[in-house]
Design brief:
Elements (H helix, E strand, L loop, with lengths): L3 E5 L3 H12 L3 E6 L5 H10 L2 E4 L4 H4 L4 E4 L8 H9 L3 E2 L1 H6 L5 E6 L4 H14 L4 E5 L5 H7 L4 E5 L2 H5 L8 E4 L14 H8 L11 E5 L3 H7 L7 E8 L6 E3 L4 E5 L4 E5 L8 H16 L4 H10 L8 E6 L2 E5 L6 H9 L5 E6 L8 H5 L8 E5 L3 H8 L4 E3 L6 H15 L2 E6 L24 H12 L4
Parallel strand pairs: 1-2, 1-4, 2-3, 4-5, 6-8, 6-9, 7-8, 9-10, 10-11, 11-12, 16-20, 17-18, 17-20, 18-19
Antiparallel strand pairs: 12-13, 13-14, 15-16
Helix pairs in contact: 1-2, 1-7, 6-11, 6-12, 11-12, 16-17
């Protein structure tokens, strides 16, 4: 009798897992409490996979031998509670795909910078001629690639949500960039629960595997005193410290030093700027060194990487004002890292949904955010907090009247040489299409940056 697999969530992750399960001869059923995007629906039809949308057939779901859950579905969703009560095993798409490939896995997590580091690592390997796949929060479904393609290496961005349901999966290179408060609404507003989820990335590491991490992150250091790993440790830091393997030396050169490959290059040759991006470049460079990529290829790729869409992305210069789209800034530290890389005189436009973050720490630090003007949506908790401190002007929602607001920012900029930095402190739609929906989960509205682009074009033409 074929194993019964139920996949919850009809997005990229879920559809990919369903196709891999079907290819392995399993009895597959996919269920999404919301609507499935048309192209995913067509994929399921073409593959002959049974599916439903707009609700859950509980009798069919609760008869599963194993459930593959899409990462956006909270364990507190009603259907997940019933699955847990039945004792049905629940795994992630990454866990499932890992059973059917012997490719090397470079797995990257962190509260900030993981998308940039993942894409930069992929860029280095691909340009070095490696047969590499891109998966996780960016790229395409790992399960689908395992089912229909063959790659020697996968570079995988892993969120805490994806790590929750990974048990036997093993990274060959695990990267931990940093840990700052994020998604606390998912973790009962307990920071340690979030830290524990992040540290699942080091599960099952052997002495042949590597753990790359930021040496000076206090949360990482505290957790490392509580857990053990057999992996080889490769810490990085801004400056030379004891045992670090990546740092900036006295000549302002980036040093990457591993037993596999070592190299030096001027810091000002790096394509990515700012301290946070220095750490991203270090982590990606160390990963490439451990995979025996030629130092010439590593150096060239670190110099010509073009960055991440929606992350400090230049949009346009209108009436002397530079507009930067940083809508991938999904938490407090990510937003402040962006400000750290900006000159004085920024107009910061904040919006989005609160995720249980604490804004008091950053806002109370002397000097941080000084010289900037902050404007925010009324429903944005960060904006309300800064408004209470007298440091933010609350405006109408950015989805309404954006032409009027951008005209105002344009006038501010002309008088103060400002940069408009568009940030929203919540998860953004990933690059792969619709996020799956499930009973008990709500989709949050998106700020319409397409409308902003059109408005910027209007301002360019001087019609305001």
């Amino acid at each position: 009798m074929n194993k019964k697999i139920v996949v919850l969530g009809g997005g990229e992750s879920g559809v990919g897992a369903a196709i891999l399960a079907k290819d392995k001869g399993m009895d597959v059923f996919l269920s999404d409490y919301g609507k499935i995007a048309p192209h995913y629906k067509q994929q399921l039809i073409d593959e002959g996979i049974a599916w439903e949308e707009g609700g859950h057939d509980e009798s069919r779901i609760l008869a599963a031998d194993e459930v593959i859950k899409s990462p956006g579905i909270a364990p507190t969703a009603p259907i997940m509670v019933k699955i847990a009560e039945r004792g049905i095993p629940v795994i992630s798409e990454i866990e499932f795909a890992g059973r059917y490939t012997d490719a090397k896995m470079v797995c990257i997590t962190g509260s900030n910078g993981k998308t940039t580091t993942t894409l930069l690592t992929y860029h280095i390997l691909k340009n070095a001629g490696i047969n590499v796949g891109l998966a996780g929060n960016v790229g395409r479904s790992l399960a689908l690639q395992v089912a229909r393609e063959h790659h020697d290496v996968y570079v995988i961005e892993l969120s805490s949500f994806q790590l929750e349901n990974m048990y036997e999966f093993k990274a060959n290179i695990a990267v931990m960039l940093n840990i700052t408060p994020d998604h606390l609404d998912r973790y009962d507003y307990k920071m340690q629960n979030y830290v524990n989820a992040k540290f699942r990335i080091i599960r099952n590491l052997t002495p042949e595997d590597a753990f790359i991490f930021w040496q000076d992150d206090p949360v990482i250091q505290a957790q490392l005193r509580q857990v053990t790993t057999e992996a080889r440790m490769y810490p990085f830091s801004e400056h030379l410290e004891k045992d670090v393997d990546a740092y900036i030396d006295a000549d302002d050169e980036l040093v990457l030093n591993t037993s596999h490959t070592s190299l030096k290059m001027p810091r000002n040759h790096l394509a990515l700027h700012g301290l946070h991006n220095l750490y991203n470049s270090m982590a990606a460079g160390l990963s490439a060194c451990l995979l025996d990529i030629r130092k010439e290829d590593i150096r060239r790729a670190l110099e010509d990487f073009e960055g991440v869409e929606h992350r400090l992305e230049y949009v346009a210069t209108v009436n002397g004002v530079r507009y930067i789209n940083d809508s991938k800034a999904t938490n407090v530290n990510s937003c402040w890292y962006a400000l750290e890389s900006m000159p004085k005189g920024v107009v910061l436009i904040l919006g989005g949904k609160d995720k249980g973050n604490d804004y008091t720490d950053r806002a109370s630090r002397k000097g941080e955010g000084e010289g900037h003007r902050v404007h925010g949506q009324g429903q944005c908790q960060a904006a309300r907090f800064l408004h209470w401190q007298g440091r933010c002007h609350i405006r109408h929602p950015l989805t309404a009247g954006c032409r009027r607001h951008l005209c105002r920012y344009s006038r501010i900029g002309r008088h103060g040489a400002a940069v408009a930095l568009l940030c929203k402190l919540r998860p953004v739609q990933q690059l792969r299409g619709s996020r799956p929906s499930v009973q008990g989960c709500r989709k949050t509205p998106q700020i319409n940056y397409k409308t902003y682009s059109l408005t910027l074009n209007t301002l360019k033409n001087g019609s305001h």
